[in-house]
Amino acid sequence: MASSVAQNKSNLVVNGTGTGDGGLLLCNCSVVQLGEPGSQPVVNKGVHILIRNKVIEYMGPTPVIPPQVIDIGGRYVLPGLCDAHVHVTAVTADLHELTQIPPSLVFARATEVLRKMLLRGFTTVRDVGGCDWGLAKAVEEGSIPGPRILFSGAALSQTGGHGDFRLPSEDQLCGCSCSRSSVNLGRVCDGVPEVRKAARDELRKGASQLKIMASGGVASPTDHVKNLQFSAEEISAVVEEAKNVGAYVCAHAYTAASVKRALELGIRSIEHGNFVDNECLDLMRSKGAFLVPTLVTYDCICRHGEAAGMPKAIVNKVADLLECGIEALASAEETGVNICFGTDLLGSMHDHQLEEFKLRSKVLSAASILRSATSTCAKLFCMEDPNNMTMIVKEGEIVSSKTLIPRVLDTGCIIKQFEGS
């Protein structure tokens, strides 16, 4: 370390240590400027970054010395990582079993999921089914450590859809998410009036965006991945309710038919999209919509699904999803679609979150992958203002400094040493 201050901090483990109004200065940083898709990234060296009052106040060549200074020594400073598809309350890979676990135990286990996400460098995540206002608020107020959570509440599903986790032998809805008597990633609703009411209720409870199940999925026990779900009228009703309050809708959708219909009805974000075709991708680009591939979950389900508690019949549903997902990702990049970083991991498989980067590297450049986990996610989240950049310091507080590298500030900067660079 070039600085005695940095040396002093390098052996600390700090949780919630505030920097105060005086701020924190990161000296001698190499800042990666990604630019627009297709452009080459630019590295600006010798940059000084001042974080004060939870925002990046200054970034440039002249240091302004506050009470706390860390010499970065020329290492890279990157925007805080974003994951646009998580389920932080999915503390088991068996989503039917999840409905049987008391909410208090689920949320206690979710705190560890969130803490580990933050320590991996993720400073903002979008939860697309399961998380509620209370858990998001606990992170916001500092009661538990974790990334900022943009939550959808319970994902809306038709009867027998991807959010209906009843077994074929069951009739009564278990753990209806409208009562929150247990934790359920989905909320079953049928017909326009019921769907509209469910959408309004999730928005009332603070959802940043809504999520619908527009096709079948892997983790649900009674549907097929290629099923088409919800009627056009039901989807339009959800989109209308979201637009009325300035929000948007994301859709779980695998097939070309489900993706095309969702886009035509006003869906802004397509989750997964493994079987999209060129027509879907052209439509996505023309509408400025977003694709959130989740490759790592298929890889993990194949390798670890049963050990994580997922029934074998559900593990078998993954089949060729990883290979198709990689092909779809390559086509989306070639078409110029907005691509976001997502993982969709469940239970103990959350620990494999960073492996999504490796899988994407088969078809994407390093710059494209980094852009998908930073600036493109910020665009999807409507958080493009640089003031939303937040070492691991989260909102100006050092949450971990056991070593200088890696550490993250939730003015959203991840500081990471690139070996061999």
Automatic annotation (TrEMBL):
GO MF annotation list: hydrolase activity, acting on carbon-nitrogen (but not peptide) bonds
InterPro entries: Amidohydro-rel (IPR006680), Metal-dep_hydrolase_composite (IPR011059), Metal_Hydrolase (IPR032466), Metallo-dep_Hydrolase (IPR051781), OTAase-like (IPR057744)
SUPFAM superfamilies tied to this protein: Composite domain of metallo-dependent hydrolases, Metallo-dependent hydrolases
Gene3D superfamilies noted in UniProt: Metal-dependent hydrolases, Urease, subunit C, domain 1
Pfam families documented for this protein: Amidohydro_1
Designated name of the protein: Amidohydrolase-related domain-containing protein
Domain of life per record: Eukaryota
Domain Amidohydrolase-related positions: 76-384
